[in-house]
Amino acid sequence: MKKISIVVWFVIAACTTSKQISKNNSSLPQNIAVTGKIFASLYQQRAAEYRALCLQAFNIARLRVDENLQMTPGKPKAIITDIDETILDNSAYEVHQTLQGKDYESASWYQWTDMSKADTVPGATAFLKYAASRGITIFYITNRDERERAGTLLNLQKFNLPNADNAHLVLRQGISSKEPRRQAVAATHDVILLLGDNLTDFNSLFDKKAMDEREQNTDNLAAEFGKKFIVIPNPVYGDWESTLYKYSNILTTAQKDSVIKSLLKTY
Questions:
Q1: pTM, entire model
Q2: Residue among 81, 89, 62 nearest 162 (CA)
Q3: pLDDT for 156-183, tens place per residue?
């Protein structure tokens, strides 16, 4: 019944696209759910503004490290970081898929991560090495699968990133929520910062939540952004996209396009 109700919702969305768009007889190219990502990937790869945003985020993170080190010591200090689009840049994979008219696929993703060819996000390497030089342990909590461990470690070690070893690489084990893994680190360490490109990298309040809830919870936690939560920009994919489709994995590209059109604002 759940799958049927989801499909019905998307049929309705397809028939009732945004009033603003229909009123102006505007149109968008088909397959925007896929082809739209090529422009976002171009921004990630070529825009100096994207680079500046990343450097800004890591500059703030460095300030928070310095501030925290002035506090009374307790448990060993740690930073928890996501990997994809936080430390490693996978835009080459996105471009490869988009140019073939394809979105994410698990098989092609595994092929990509096995190559260990991802570059680093601007500023990530320098920041992590700085934090490690100040005695802070780095934990990499990622939703990559266990089968990706070898390729992931090789990719991290290629850039001599600190704590790039099995003990500090925490992969997904069954559930996608990172909260239990964060809590396990917090049991033995004082977690002073969390780095990520997706709000689920910071708090379970964002796990599988609807669009309105994500926005409200973001406002509720506003004081944490730039303080304990450091967000790296990712315009290509993430839960911000998944929530548009109500986390459904059964939609066709045409259905996704209809949903996107129904949510866009114009005049």
A1: 0.89
A2: 81
A3: 999 999 999 999 999 998 899 999 999 9
